[in-house]
Amino acid sequence: MELIEIKEFLRSKTGYLKEGSKRLRNHLRLKGFETTIGNCKIALREVNQENRESISKLSSVKARILIYDIETSPNIGWFWRAGFKQNISPEQIIKERAIICVSYKWLGEDEVYNLNWDKDQSDYFLVEQFIETLNEADLIVAHNGDNFDLKWLRTRALYHRLKMLPSYKQFDTLKIARSKLYLNSNKLDYISKFLGFEGKIKTEIGLWMDIVFKNDRDALQKMLDYCDEDVRQLENVYNEIKFLENPYIHAGVANGKVKQTSPINGSFDIKHVKEVCSNRGTIKHIMKDNESGRFFEMSNTNYLKFKELKQ
């Protein structure tokens, strides 16, 4: 694979721009392309340089929503016997748990990217690179992200002395399902199938054992495929249930428009549905985005300005 071909690949698959030259070469080999580490290094440097000049402009034009999922390893330890109500202390841990892999995609794009721990089962590179991706997002989406994925990432970042932003705006599909719906199960697989999608790839505990204890690279690839599909199903679920909440980000403002536009798509094609008043006397207005059919709240101040702008 020539240098110009690697650069074209990186321009179309921007998720690989955060790879090191050796890892990029290995990824290309898995896809059937032979090349050198030197060419990968040059291509990464030059394409990243191209992007630096336009990334600020691009990020101001479009709100970026990141869909992601992680898979983790268990603690490895010693204990005297198995059974319920057993007390296993931290001193019995031989090897700390870590993140095996993370898969992610940008909402509306086709490509799913992934990162995995290295051959020594260190997740340093994975966490370091994914933090940079998280920091680019205006909104992140995960299933049980508030109580699991994001806390895991923060914990591993702390372990490696890597810095994360103080907070991330996150849409937790599990939290929304529990608070807004009455499903037979709140698991991602069930919700996906309930909505008519394929559901998750089936796995067994042996897959984790082969990865953790045998360092089996074929098993790791199966887990990456599993995690990638989780992200695709998560995107499907998010697109179906996001209307249950007020928009987490304002698409109009993100695109440089006024707050009186639709937070869903930045359009003025919205209509007034009803006026509501809180027990504290605060007036709000329920609005409908005519293009998507979604409802959202607008403050009384913004509604009055909206009426002026429409005249």
Strand order of the largest sheet: 5-4-1-6-7
Order of helices and strands: HHHEEEEEHEHEHHHHHEEEH
CATH topology tier name of the largest domain: Nucleotidyltransferase, domain 5
The CATH superfamily of the largest domain appears as Ribonuclease H-like superfamily/Ribonuclease H
Mind describing the biggest β-sheet? 5 strands, mixed
Shape descriptor: globular
In the CATH scheme, the class of the largest domain would be Alpha Beta
The total number of structural domains is 3
Count of strand segments = 10
Q: What is the CATH architecture annotation of the largest domain? A: 2-Layer Sandwich
Strand content: 15-25%
Mean pLDDT: 91
- pLDDT under 50 segments (min length 5)? 54-61
List the topology elements.
Blueprint lengths: L2 H10 L8 H10 L6 H25 L3 E8 L3 E2 L15 E3 L3 E8 L6 E4 L7 H13 L2 E4 L2 H15 L10 E3 H8 L7 H7 L10 H10 L2 H25 L9 H4 L15 E8 L5 E7 L5 E5 H11 L1
Parallel strand pairs: 1-6, 6-7
Antiparallel strand pairs: 1-4, 2-3, 4-5, 8-9, 9-10
Helix pairs in contact: 1-3, 2-3, 7-9, 8-9
